[in-house]
Every structure is written in structure tokens, then in C-alpha cells.
Please model this.
Amino acid sequence: MWYEVAMNPKAVSSIFTGDEPCLEKIEVSKIIMSYDGPSFTIIFDVKNYPMNPPEKWKQYSYNQAQIALQLWDVKDVKIEGWSTINIADISFLQLEPQKFLFKLIGSGCAMTMQFQRMQVEVTGYMNKTH
Model:
């Protein structure tokens, strides 16, 4: 599973129990670059919703899962295109024991980079377009 390369895989497995967030046709909402690390944070909505969402999500009627991937020790960053709507597929490839390749490929945007560490955050919110 893609999130097993993260430093905190339980951030995903504790919310997506029995299912896995799909990284195909995700909607990228934000990309943050930082000299600290250096790091990149990619924030996106996933198409599938957890089968057993947290109680807080139910309480607030959250209907959308959002993931933030924070990639650390990045290098060889390549970015091509950006739009107001960025639908893309994300994939990972392990190059060495602590070296990975991140790919984001969409119709209007593309990004690749190598990284050494990843942290994941999963949040929910009410998407009024659903």
C-alpha cells in the first residue's frame, strides 16, 4: 500500500479501515514548497470516502476526505503546468531503501521529485458540491 512508505502510515490506515484511498483522478487543491527540509506538501481530495469515518466526521456531516502529503529531503523537482482544476494520478516508486520517486501526472499539470521521507495527514470536510 502506498502509504506504508510514510513515517506515520497509521494516519491513513486508522481512517481508511478495510479500504485504501485511491490516488487516481484526485483533485489537487494546493502545493506548498518550503526551504525547510527542503519539503513539498501536496494537498488533494480523494474520490473514495472511508467506509468507517471518524465520529467527528459524522458529527459535522463531513462528506469529503482530504490528504496532505508532506515530502521531505526532496530533490530533482520538476513541475509542469498548473490550472484552477488539477485532476491527476499520483504514484510512488522506491528507488533505494530510503529514496523514493513521487509522480503526479494530470491533463494540465505534472510533477516529479525524489524524496527520502513522507508524512501523511488525513482530514475531512463538508464539500458542498457533493
Summary: Residues 2-125 form one domain. The chain is about 5% helix and 50% strand. The helical segments are 10-13, 55-59.
